[in-house]
Records
---
Amino acid sequence: MTASLHHHPDGATLMAYAAGTLGEALSAVVAAHLGTCRTCRREVRLLASLGGGLLESLGGEALPAPDQSPALPGDAPPVTAAVDASDRMPAIIQRRYGLKLGDVPWKSMGPGLAFHWLPLTEGIPGELRLIKVAAGRSIPEHAHGGSELTFVIQGGFHDITGSYSPGDVQDVDGDVAHTPVADPEGCICLVAAEAPAEFKGLLGRLVQPFTRR
Amino acid sequence: MLQSSTSMEAAAQWAPPPRPGSMPELLLRIARERSEAAFRELFDEFGPRVRSYMRRQGVDAATADELAQETLLTVWRKAALYSATKGTPASWIFTIARNLRIDRIRREVGWQELTDDDADTIPSEDQAPDETVSAVQRQARVQAVLAELPPEQREVVVLAFIDGLSHAEIAQRLSLPLGTVKSRMRLAYQKVRSALEDLQ
């Protein structure tokens, strides 16, 4: 799959991800992409070494030894759901939410359009959604208060910024208004936004009331 | 160990730090021999740095101490996950500190994983036989890239990686348009990538 990937997160997005400043929703989409993209995984690793180099340059007073002895038993294994590798849902989403692609409780948003919101930590700005668009249908034209990252899970879509296939990421700034249209096989995406989308036009205004949680 | 406490605020005046050349070896001794002496050395070397990092996130001194101690204890517990082919010890310790910061200070769910090779089906690279040497070289190369970054790019990189500011917060802090911050980030990213990509 890696060889066919054409769209990756923007360099500035990867920098923020590596620094740990991207925010929960957008980071989820980058993490999903890293699961399929070896190139970006390497680059995030390179960027972590940048953080390491900066850490080396910091000084400070000696740190007091902790009360605990270092010879403690290891961490309890993290509680995560099992991953079904044959399922198209990104492994990291399966682990966090225990959700497979066939089990998503879709909420219809109108003809050929369904959403499912994935919960974020309470009080965190932004939103994380799964979106299912039927063949040839479009998501109403919308703009954003902040960045939007879209990861293609299945099928594909195209808009003024290009064509996107499974594993690709669309990374658009807040000021880009776009109308993604699903390919003939339809499209399922993981979409993160720093701020909720603002829809335009008649259909957009009809969808709008449902898109605010 | 005699690390200058010069603040990174003067990002323009970059001087590569004295490099602890034995770090990769220390970490491997911790992983393979569970050497407490090696851990003590690593703790003395990185403890102050990790605490400074935590302080830069805006937490009080006691919290910074706790988080730095926890970071170093995690290094001890998870040393076996460290692989010299995946980056410098400093970068590995940075990722542990960063993940702890996301979890404890920002109280968000972190998606960044400590190791990335268990997340998918792609096999990890074989461990290079001269891994210690390559990790030391890696450290030197990273410092060289940081020294070569133009000051305005280094400034935004430091504000993100060390001060934990988002692009929008950096724009606010520096009174710059968000687009300018992003383009400086992008330029720094391209420089780092072209300077270090052969290391991977």
Note: DSSP finds eight helices and no strands in chain B.
---
Amino acid sequence: MTDDDNILAAELALGLLDAREEALLQARIDQDAAFAACVAWWREQLTPLVNEIEVAPDAHVWPRIAGGLPSNDHILRQIQRWRTIAISAMAVAASLLLVIVMKPMPASQSPQVIMAARLDGQAGTAATVAYEARSGQLTVVPGRFDTSTHDAELWIIPDGGAPVSLGVIDARRPTHPSVVTDRRPLIQAGASFAITLEPKGGSPTGHPTGPVVGAGKIAAT
Amino acid sequence: MSAEIISLERAALIQALQRVATGDRAALEDVYRRTSAKLFGICLRIFPVREEAEDVLQDVYLLIWQKANQYDPKRASPITWLATIARNSAIDRLRARGKRIMTPIENIAEPIDERADALTCLIEGESEQRIFDCLNRLDNGDQVLIRSAFFEGSTYADLADRAATPLGTVKSRIRRALLKLRECLS
């Protein structure tokens, strides 16, 4: 490591750089093991400084943290769980509310295609979700589930794929959220909708972390 | 802390984190008991209002709960890994709000040296102590700048504003100090 590299590593460990510079160096960490080791060395050296500033949090903080934890998850278990859901959803697909509505439209326009699924869970129907492909708009009619301490997040799960978030939904009233353009192609027959309970503001990881309150597959056309 | 206690503590923390990765809530409580004062200290330096720091701390332990399976003891000591999560969470939250810590840093030009007593350094000469020893060998102003960067997440630009000093001057001072630190720590 040159002096310059050493300084860069220390700057990164200390957080002296702005976000853009940090992002550039992050790429180098991923590729340059020696540089990554140098950054790690600086982090280890600096860590004892935190002994200088210890402050015990108040007693009420831990119960709050413990109460807000989602059921634990990590990638492997998550994938297994989602596979199970996808398979069982497939098995009962025919019994779910799966509708394709073709409305008569002027010949020059693409037909209005509405895809819908009922999202069933252990406690009954969590929601009914319909999607209008041309406008990219969802209609989400929530059932009853408790969101006093969590937010409900809607996911689209491509057949055999990993869940992709469609955002946090309002659990108290029907809403018409618009789907982000690049996620629209995921919503098609064979994919499943699911709702999970997540920390307020939605899953912090981009993957489902909490319990599934309902899931349902969009019927094949 | 003696080196033995430090390594026992480290082993216990590694074990606890590995149990957290399996979804063990009691293990997370164990991690919390061992580390919350340090991590709360980090949050408080960036969010001095206690309620806000508590919110950050809650996020931090939620992240630990979710990311424990990513912790690799070969790449970082557990406390470094945890402290990095805490610092990054707090700094990200601050930046997401478009805020920066603007408390002035004064008198960085003064080379007043409050060196720790040499004897104390010898007695406490454990590896954990070395960073304090080495920081103490820097000019006072350089120490303040480096501590502010570490504790408050201040970038070069923030430090230059806070110390009312040109950016170039702050950068070259800190870089010189970092090389001295590196030499002392190695």
Note: Residues 104 and 164 of chain B are 8 Å apart (CA to CA).
---
Amino acid sequence: MDLSLLPQALVSGVLAAGLYALVSVGLALAIGVIGIVNFAHGEFFMVGAFLAYQLFVSFGFDPLLSLLFVAPALFVIGAIIYLSSIRFVLKAPELNQMLLTFGVGIILQNLALLIWGGDPRTIARVPYRAIGYKIGNISIGLVPLGSFVISLILVAALYWMLARTPLGRGMRAVAQNRIGAGLVGLEVNRIYLIAFAMSALLAGMGGVMIAVIQSPTPTIGFGFTLKAFAIVVLAGLGNIRGITIAAIVVALSESLVATMVPNGDSLRNAVFFAIIFVALVARSRRAY
Amino acid sequence: MKRILATLVLAVLAFAAAQGVTIGVLAPLTGGAAGTGQAQKAGFELALEEINAAGGVLGQPLKIIIEDTKADPATGVAAFEKLMTEDNVEFIAGGYSSGVTLALVESFKTFQPIVSWIGGAVSGIGIDNFDGIEELLGQEEWFFHIHPWDYANTEASTAFQVYTGVDTVALLHEDGAFGGPGAAGAQALLEAAGMKVVLNEAFKSTLTGGTGDFRAAISKAAASGGEMLYWIAYDGDAQPLVSQVRELNYHPKYIFGAPPGWPSDFDKVPEAQCVTGMIGYLPNLPNPEAQAFLTSYQAMHGTAPDNYMAALAYANLWSYADAINAAGTTDQAAVIKALQEGTFRSPMGDWSFKPSIEALHQGFGAEMWFIFQFQNGVREIVWPVDISTSPLQTCP
């Protein structure tokens, strides 16, 4: 074990947590407010990445500029999917809901395959992609730093919206008791629609950031969906406030194992499965 | 009664002959290796058009049925079994990914069609407690392997690495059936050539559920001080890997990548310039067969082939057509004999099947490979020097 790598592992882990939090918080929103486990969440992320790629190819847009266009596009896509499918299974058994979202994910993947093909697509020119600031033995990449800051701003904005705005208070009320919220005059269906569309928007913005870092493919969402589920489980299903801390725990654990253990990068998936396992066991013990 | 049966048998045989020969093709048309699969498809389509324009096979138009493996072992096995049980093909072509090929071994042995395979380079030779494709299928009369084995790949790349004059190499590889054995073989050959492998580290590829964050592995490579960074992984890993090498301020003299293919537009990525790789075919290869292939390919597909798998697929189908025509029948023993004895065309020049370390029928070896370097958005041939289009440059 080379301890001189420890500071870099800590920095890389913390910076990765920002993107993890952004991808996970949308999933937590869908679970917490609507009560639906959305297996298509990673596909919203994938669609965001491909839209950023397309805006670069068609108009030469930098991914940062793309965020302004991809965010409303994903909001609309999320809303359409909610209105055309999700709203019909809100009272259905959970298994039906999961199967529906799984199907929506497959449809989105295949649409991406038809439009962009299966070949990894690269946003060729991102002038800041390879910039890294060296401080002692540590390199801080501009892209991971930027995505960390943008992600935290977006997550903080979501927290603020939930805490301080009538819409956010409505979401919290619906999350606590959908029947009670309806009885006091809240438009539950409208809140569900907005929450689901916002969940897609947040995933899509994460997708734009990942399009800077790696080459999008129709299956790019899979790895991030797994991580998002680990983070949501660690935070507690539907606990939106716990997402940032859980994201830091998952990202740091991964980074430390990947860096400090020989061939540790291969163990990344084992790390978050271990975290899911420990979180579920600990929670079940506490329940007794 | 006997006369009726004989007439029926003859009628069935005549009907079968009139239907022409159909070859089943397995390729990853979708999924993380789709770029390579689509290149294979383009190569097969070009060969098919040329074969049928030249009179087809046994006087009938040749047909191919391409099934998508998605570079996924389970999907690959299902696709192969569909070709055997629903389409009733007698010949299998294509192939990609050692993981998929290893998963297919038992199914191949069950059905035993003629398999002429352009993917799956993992031989298993020299690796303890692991049986590779050459070891598992090499002695089967019906198995023909066209792509060079992993030790031939590393033999060619090691010759180039010796040429660069570096003393230390940091090896990063994806942790699956492609990267692990490939890296073990590379390390043995590099050390035998007198170079020191200062790191041999696995990482999770984007093709197998990784998220493209390779900073941990690259940090170790930077700390090891390897003068050459040598990575073995898949297409989708190329861009994040080279970008993060720069981001983490790792400055090896050379970066050598060994993916099966390169992602589209990678040549335009500024961080990719100076990256070297090994390939069996490039449009700027000077031999006349390569130039003829380029002209036909551009006429059919509108672009130049950017993946050597297109050239291998082209050679794969033409060898089947020439062998079946030479045999004058689809009888398995006769076609095997024709494949064993024939000399076939390819964009890389004429080739034939010869024995390798443990296989009866091996197509290409280390001589197929040459080294290119991304320079100003173009893949320039830099080694062997006698066919180079530009001198080798060190990375900034």
Note: Chain B has two domains: 2-150+287-368, 152-283+370-387.
